[in-house]
Amino acid sequence: MQNDDVIWDVIRHHHCSYMAKIQTGNFCRNPYNVTGICNRSSCPLANSRYATIRDHDGIFYLYMKTIERAHMPNKLWERVKLPKNYMKALEIIDKHLEYWPKLLVHKIKQRLTKMTQYRIRMVKLSKKVREKIMTVPRKEVKRESRREEKALRAAQIENVIEKELLERLNKGVYPDICNYDEEIFNKLLDKNKEEEQEEEEEEEAEVEYVEGDYELEEEEELEEDIEDMGDFLKANNFEDIEGDEDDLEEQPAKKKAYVSYPLKQDDGTEKVRRKGKKVVVEVERDEDMGNRQHNVM
Amino acid sequence: MAKEKKRKAAEEAVDGDDYIEREDKKPKKQKLILASQIKNKEKRSAVYAKLKHEKRVEKHKKIKARDAASKQALELGEEPPEKMVPRTIENTRELDETVCRPDDEELFAGNDADEFSAVLKQQTAPKVLITTCRFNSSRGPAFIKELLSVIPNAQYYKRGTYELKKIVEYAKNKEFTSIIVVHTNRREPDALLLIGLPDGPTAHFRLSNLVLRKDIKNHGNPTSHEPELVLNNFTTRLGHRVGRMIQSLFPQVPNFRGRRVVTFHNQRDFIFFRHHRYVFEVKEKKEGLKDKKSKASQGKTEKKAIARLQECGPRFTLKLVSLQHGTFDTKGGEFEWVHKADMDTSRRRFFI
């Protein structure tokens, strides 16, 4: 036997599990509630003739319950699909709820309006691109920072850069660096070429010397070199010969577009120990020395 | 009496005749006491100190012996004993098939056909657009200012609330060659997004260890000359690609008079960025002073050319998180390389 007043009495004064009491008032958690407030007229349990709009996957449905079906909870709620068009949906509501109490119909239409509005907003938001915040487990963060520190220590960046710059200088990439004493510098260019090979041997052990690196330099330098070689040839006699030799040596290599440093060409042994006692032991390589001496006038 | 007996017993025990007797008994176990088991702190530390001293003495001996041997061998004209190479992570790196080889035709063909070839062959000048994430705070603006001074021909645009894809379009219209997006997290620049244009790849780097110019001691001030680029250790194919991408940010004709060098050094997948001004100098090294025994070599001065660096500009490290083909499109884009957690399992495996 269904008596709304009795039901309401029991629910309200004793216990309704759908009621949520907060500071501003009583709310109803029942999914079939139209307004969401715990009210005599809005309670779906205490009204035998009731209707709501619910949203499923972006489609709105009108749910209706009548007292005729009150004894069949399974088939209690009748569902009508509402079109996405707001005006048409209103018409359909009017059609179905023609002879229903005006208050309820009004509430239902209000609910429909609100739901349409938030559906539009949701669609807009989902099209907008928002940044997603991803968290990284602390273990990984720490691991990364540890590895970074060790990599930094292994890298010895300053040394590597200095070596690189010296190599480029010796290759003749820099046309005119205005802060050196010319004579001494040119002499040094010779000596440095010998020592270069020593240095490289050591480097091979430490730094993973990179073909990719060469190529990248090459691209920069190729342009430079081609331009500068021209200047060289015209300007300085001394460097002219040096330049030529370099050119000749390197051009066949350059045709491959990769310069491989003269690797371990020497038959003697050389060591340059950087740390501790600096013992520079040079063993004469007759061939090369011969060549070089030729050019030094 | 008892003492005499004991003495005799001891004497007898020492004799060789008593060995047969000895064998019946169990051999006395030698108790090895670890230094860490001594409870007395003073005694324990004394034992440790002794151990350490012994170790050091041994090590010195070894080194001396090695040096002497090599010296001797050299004097005799023979080959010295092989110098021992310490085992490093770089030495024992896992073999990577994708390491670029010098004679790789495919690589060059790829280079010609890739997105950076236009800039790298100097057909277009690089033009960089720098922007930030939506909320920029604290160190972000300072960092961007410094970036602007490092990269020539770079412009800063405020982010507003534009979508990145729209920004990409906008930049394409204005003929930029790349976009840099600096992302801030917890008031620190956290990530760098490098987008190549017009349809270049998108590289997402994680930024760490940022040190601004004002925090570097004895820093120098960079000029506006075009900098030189140094790219180290980009061995694999992926590394090569990333290297070229970085290269395309900078103009290809450096102005050597400016003596500015920008370095991207890759070590164990961490790309260290440094910005220096350099100077070549002649350094006089007096040889023979260290070898006090030989008087003959005194007074010999060897001159060496060295490069001296003065650091200017920011200092930071990058780590590649993902490389995506095409411009920024996380949902629909094709990722060439993504960092996954299980890539970190081996300490000897690196990808760049």
From TrEMBL, chain A:
Pfam families: Mak16, Ribosomal_L28e. Its main location: nucleus. The keyword Coiled coil applies. One of its GO terms (cellular component) is nucleolus. The keyword Ubl conjugation does not apply. GO terms for biological process: maturation of 5.8S rRNA; maturation of LSU-rRNA. It comes from the Eukaryota. Residues 239-250 have a biased composition (Acidic residues). Residues 185-220 form a coiled coil. Keywords: Coiled coil, Nucleus. Residues 239-262 are annotated as: Disordered. Gene3D superfamilies: 3.30.390.110. Residues 6-118 form the Ribosomal eL28/Mak16 domain. It is found in: Nucleus. Belongs to the MAK16 family. PANTHER family: MAINTENANCE OF KILLER 16 MAK16 PROTEIN-RELATED, PROTEIN MAK16 HOMOLOG. This is Protein MAK16 homolog.
Automatic annotation (TrEMBL), chain B:
Transmembrane segments: none annotated. Residues 1-26, 59-81 are annotated as: Disordered. Residues 126-329 form the Brix domain. Residues 12-21 have a biased composition (Acidic residues). GO terms for cellular component: nucleolus; preribosome, large subunit precursor. GO terms for molecular function: rRNA primary transcript binding. SUPFAM superfamilies: Class II aaRS ABD-related (SSF52954). It comes from the Eukaryota. GO terms for biological process: maturation of 5.8S rRNA; maturation of LSU-rRNA. This is Ribosome production factor 1. The lineage of its organism: Eukaryota, Viridiplantae, Streptophyta, Embryophyta, Tracheophyta.
